[in-house]
Amino acid sequence: MVAPELISPKSSRVAAARRLGKRNFRTKERLFLAEGPQAVREAAGHSTDGAATLVELFSTVEAAERYGDILEAAQKAGARVHLADEAVIADISTTVTPQGLVGVCRFLDTPFEEILAAKPELVAVLAHVRDPGNAGTVLRCADAAGADAVVLTDASVDLYNPKSVRASVGSHFHLPVAVGVPVEEAVRGLKDAGVRIVAADGAGQDDLDDELDKGTMGGPTAWVFGNEAWGLPEETRALADAVVRVPIHGKAESLNLATAAAVCLYASARAQRRDARRS
Description:
Layout: E1 5-6, H1 12-19, H2 23-29, E2 31-35, H3 37-44, E3 47-48, E4 51-52, E5 54-59, H4 61-66, H5 68-76, E6 80-83, H6 86-92, E7 101-106, H7 112-117, E8 122-126, H8 132-145, E9 149-153, H9 162-168, E10 177-181, H10 183-192, E11 196-200, E12 206-207, H11 208-214, E13 221-225, H12 234-237, E14 242-245, H13 257-278
Parallel strand pairs: 1-6, 5-6, 8-9, 8-13, 9-10, 11-13, 11-14, 12-14
Antiparallel strand pairs: 2-7, 3-4, 5-7
């Protein structure tokens, strides 16, 4: 492995990386930050249309010694690797306790048309989701459940918000994600592709357990998730083929967004696998 380049806190590279903590700079440069060993490892192994996703990596000496395999993978991917002291990493990082690795990555969202062309079976649509931690966690749940894609509507949070990237724990690099799609366009496109639209809402008239018992969840499905505080607006619920609630069997008032998304996505994934075995 080639020795990484030592870098100064006053370096223009450090300043450029630090600016990516702000959305307007991310959008202008089409670059974002991935922090921690898991996210950086996934970034180093990811590419889009032959172009490596990880373009630059900042590492403390301690992290370089501990995660030598990640630095080697980053260099093989063509990323420029810098050694820096903890103060530099803290300056770039958006976390309170940085883990010693911060990567600069190219945007990796997928055009919505490409997602439709791939004939997805299970999709998570984030409509009006404003909290970046929730968005990243739902993305992670969709990845774990084996979803084919995630769609963030134009009313939702920035996919590349550092909190969203951290919350996904590397899932940003695992499945196609479309961004900035108007919810009406997302629903219309998925319906035209033969996907059933199911809105998740605590006040939904249909019960998830009943839907599973009736056998309605085994086909291609897109779950639409809304804002945790106020749910989905009526006009969005009206676009769905069904509005489904996760049953609460205990005394809890409700489930948070990410937990409800995990329950819904895994329910669909299980029903789809069951139906596939029967066919």
